[in-house]
User: What shape does this take?
Amino acid sequence: ATLPESLVDAELFGHAQNYPQSGMPARPGLVGEAEGGTLFLDEIGELPQALQAHLLRLMDGGEYRRLGETGARTADLRLVAATNRPREALKHDLLARFRHVVEVPPLAERRADVPLLLRHLLKSAAAKDPLLAERFLDGAGEPRFAVGLVSALLRHPLPLQVRELDSLLWRCLAASPGEVVEPTPDLLEAGAPPETSRDPATISKAELQSALAEHDGVQAHVWPALGLQSRYQLRRLLKKYDLG
Assistant: This one.
């Protein structure tokens, strides 16, 4: 996402010496540097579809060509990519070449993960900062969180996912006066009590079909609109009414 379109090929595949101008050193590119290992492309959905096609040959047989060279090279690597865009943002033939596709639901749909992620984020930060570890980790190396902090974050919408959770954690660390991570006042105020979820048994097939049509079948939008607690309740309803 941070690369200009004109530089994508050079960054990925590298270029020959003296290309595109005399005196330029040869560059292996990300593909060459990942030889024998793993290349992770974050936000691959931001790559224009015309440039996505440049990855097809690499994914088929490992072949690629550095800019300024006439011969093809071969790379032995594992390609992993991530995107927060819908699948339609990727060329269908590029998407088909990924052997495994894993869809990670948003934090709003997996609230039970919030305390686990919070623990991981603080322990990861403390591993790089001894003072942070000494202050906020107990003798067993476990974080000391106030109960109010976890409760507030469980209620927080977290639209920016883990990045927002990490940012909120650092704000709380900076504001905590003692050895326990406390929630900031604005975090406590922002977290409204969770709404009571609707009983799936009260939703008729007609209402479900109407909600699906209104949201173009996007399940991530349908289950909140119906007042359901999770996408799993929606999936059970779809199965019940033979709609999915």
Notes: The beta strands are 38-41, 63-64, 73-74, 78-81. The mean pLDDT is 88.
